[in-house]
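User: For my dataset I need records formatted as: sequence, then structure tokens, nothing else. Please produce one.
Assistant:
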Amino acid sequence: MVEKKTSLEKKFKIKISYQEVEKRMEENFLELSKTLKISGFRPGKVPITFVKNRYEKDVLSKVTEKLIQEEGNKTFESKGYRLAAQPKVTLLNKIEDKTDIEAEFEFEILPQIDIQDFKGLKLSKYKADVEEKDIIKVIDNLFNDYREFKELNTNRKIKSGDRLIISYKGFLDGKIFDGGSAEKQTIDIGKNNYFPEFENNLLGKSKNDNVDFDMTFPENYNNETLKGKKVKFNLIINDVLEGIKLENEEELAKKTGSSGAKDLRNKIKNELEKYSEELSFNMLKRSIVDNLAKQYSFSLPKILVDREENLARAENNKNKNKKDEKKLKEEAKNKVKIGLIISEIGIKNKINVTEKEIESALAKICMQYPGKEKEVIEHYKNNPSYMNSIKGPIFEDKVMKYISENATITNKKISSDELLKKISDLDEKKNNLTKRKK
């Protein structure tokens, strides 16, 4: 008998005759008698009575669990249920009573989503060609990164671009705070590796200067002890080094492992084109997601929404964020909704992630851990959640590409600066919408 609770919440009861339980148990006892290795008995010759006396309780439990699972799966299949998560199974009587087994299944199913074709979906794809100014900007940054630092010939004032060797102590309420002191620390002025307020107090100073200043840590600083707190620094500028720029692009090419300036420029152009295409595709994905969210409306399995909310809360606590609970719940619902739509599109159109694609993604991850490739691969392959973290984004991108290939796309050429601005505007628009909903 199947009872309906809500559109997605279901439950049903099953009944298994004890005769079927006994039959399955006898089969298990017979198999055990052939495979058990018991001292005093020859292999395969353990008496059934001995097996029953010693293993009856374990076999009963194992057989009952297996039969309940099989019977439940028959109902799932006959009713066409697609489960949102593992069902809750409740035994309605004691298996030790040696009577017919009764159990109840409670679960949620996935919603029915009627996927429409994408011919009517009109999208704009922004494509940015790589221009000479983009290449020059990267080359200028490389020249800056590959400077050779030498000691100053004269003791001049510190300016942006200099490399300093400093020793400092930071005090909170008169005591050195944790992580607040260092000896002979390197700092590149203008690279924003330190807080601007910290660097600004070093500009205009000179080698061997003893500098004292106050600084306030930002309210969103990731250290609770220092967040928003005013501290005092005492530091000594041990040395000042001046960055000497390489003479030409040919020298720069050699430093970066290129055969020459032309090869370096080609590599830069190729990387910028890849980056531009990634940005363009990410923008297109945002547009597709927004359209899908507006186009489809259906009930969401509570168990999936709750799970997503719990993951978001855990992430917030880990990063010490203070995300509004209403916003968190809304984002969790949207994530589940889009995930279900993407999954349904993939299933309907037989989109799968291949082993080759997984191996390629794993290889990229391994590049971040040179010398530990074997351990990384084993770690991922032995942890389903880690493997899903690889498969998920690949599957999503393949579905997005499928949608874009079947939708009506208008290509629009813009500059790389305009593309970056459009992405920035989208982020700002999303943040403003979130604020208005609070």
